[in-house]
Write a structure and sequence with these properties.
The protein is an alpha/beta fold. Helix content is 23%, strand content 24%. Helix 1 (13-24) packs parallel to helix 8 (330-341) and helix 5 packs across helix 6. The structure holds flavin-adenine dinucleotide.
Length: 363
């Protein structure tokens, strides 16, 4: 069986940064990603832009330049990640999913992995999870789980949620041209979707459980645009409503005034995503709080199982209010590198990142 110092699971920005830091520190690394590099950005709606500015999501000290010096799109960032992987010569085993991790007898771990068609998270789900698992296991002294946390949609739990015209993902805005679309949600994703779909020619209604849009949950440059569209009657807003049933051509909402049935060609349930904690449970990690995040030593990001570390959004469990992002996860990489290799990352962790480290403590 092949032996490594460290196994990294997850080929998102933080997994890549982790791999590069450990190699620079002289460690032998094996790295698995269930899909393509940066899989998470491949399922965002086309041309969705980051909210974070480029310098905050740049990794490994490599500048991220965009054509207009603005926020990067998912596509631009996906290409940037490929370039970083190439530049650092990182060998990532893509389309290989880690299905099981076991402790071995001498304090290390055995990782069982299998070919997979897609990454973890997004509309497409690999039905053949577990197929061939255990054929070519590898052994590693330490494991860093950088598996992200948007693995499945947060189910609303109403009849009709699985009908064909209902989705938890925005998809291509042009698909909704001249269609009646009811969007359920009140955070960034729902607000952005309402604006984009209106501009793509859809007839948009936004249903939100709160009595007004929450400035704490929608970016300050997105909110005024949406409020203006609502005030002008271009997007219909139905506050204090919750879906109770979705039918083939309509959605029934319950509100303070009683129930209302709105015609709908499409229903978008943009109510967030949850983490799949299967690997955590297999390993017997302590998990805490409503988010079911792994219990971590903040200095090292080590879990309750010595030798298992967690980096990036994987550390936050299922976030109801996002507090862990790429920008405050660079510090995780530095802490883990120090714990495993005794040295920090070889690139500069600038004051932007240090300031954001505090956010991390609030988790
Ligand atoms: C519309 C939208 C906008 C966003 N905007 C921002 C923003 O502006 N700034 C920001 O910081 N964040 C933003 N986010 C969140 C962002 O996606 C995460 O912060 C980021 O992806 C976290 O990086 P990560 O490396 O921790 O995890 P991910 O990028 O999620 O990477 C995890 C990887 O692990 C892989 N994986 C999981 N399980 C396994 C397994 N068992 N075996 C092998 N591989 C596995 C997955 O396929 C995935 O590629 C946004 C999200 C959405 C949906």
């Amino acid at each position: 069986m092949d032996e490594f110092d460290v196994a990294v699971v997850g080929g998102g920005p933080i997994g890549i940064e982790m791999h590069a830091a450990l190699v620079a520190a002289g460690k032998r690394v094996v790295h698995f990603e269930a899909g393509r590099i940066g899989h998470t950005f491949s399922w965002w709606a086309p041309r969705t832009r980051f909210f974070s500015s480029p310098e905050r999501i740049a990794i490994c000290g490599v500048p991220l330049r965009t054509p207009d010096q603005g926020k990067a799109s998912a596509e631009q960032y996906g290409d940037y990640l490929l370039a970083v992987v190439e530049q650092f010569g990182l060998n990532i085993k893509t389309f290989e999913r880690v299905d099981r991790i076991e402790r071995d007898n001498d304090g290390g771990f055995v990782l069982h992995h299998a070919p997979s068609r897609v990454g973890v998270g997004g509309q497409e789900i690999d039905e053949e999870i577990g197929f061939g698992a255990g054929e070519r296991p590898v052994r590693a002294r330490h494991v860093v789980l950088a598996i992200g946390n948007m693995h499945r949609p947060r189910a609303v739990g109403v009849p009709g949620e699985t009908l064909a015209h209902v989705s938890h993902y925005l998809g291509h805005p042009g698909d909704y041209f001249d269609k009646r679309v009811v969007i359920v949600g009140g955070k960034n994703s729902a607000a952005e979707a309402a604006i984009r779909l209106y501009r793509a020619g859809a007839h948009v209604t936004l249903s939100y459980r709160g009595d007004e849009l929450d400035a704490g949950r929608i970016k300050y440059w997105v909110l005024p645009e949406l409020v203006w569209l609502i005030e002008k009657g271009r997007v219909e807003f139905v506050p204090e409503t919750r879906p109770v049933e979705i039918r083939r051509d309509a959605i029934e909402l319950a509100g303070r005034e009683g129930r209302v049935v709105l015609p709908a060609d499409f229903v978008l349930l943009l109510t967030g995503y949850v983490q799949d904690g299967t690997l955590y449970d297999q390993l017997g990690l302590d998990r805490i709080g409503e988010s079911r995040r792994p219990r971590l030593d903040r200095e090292t990001m080590q879990t309750s199982v010595p030798g298992i570390f967690v980096a990036g959004t994987a550390s936050s469990g299922s976030q109801t209010r996002a507090k862990v992002f790429i920008e405050n996860s660079h510090a995780h990489v530095d802490r883990i590198c120090r714990a495993i290799a005794g040295v920090g990352v070889p690139w500069k962790l600038d004051e932007v990142m240090e300031g954001l480290g505090q956010l991390d403590e609030e988790m």
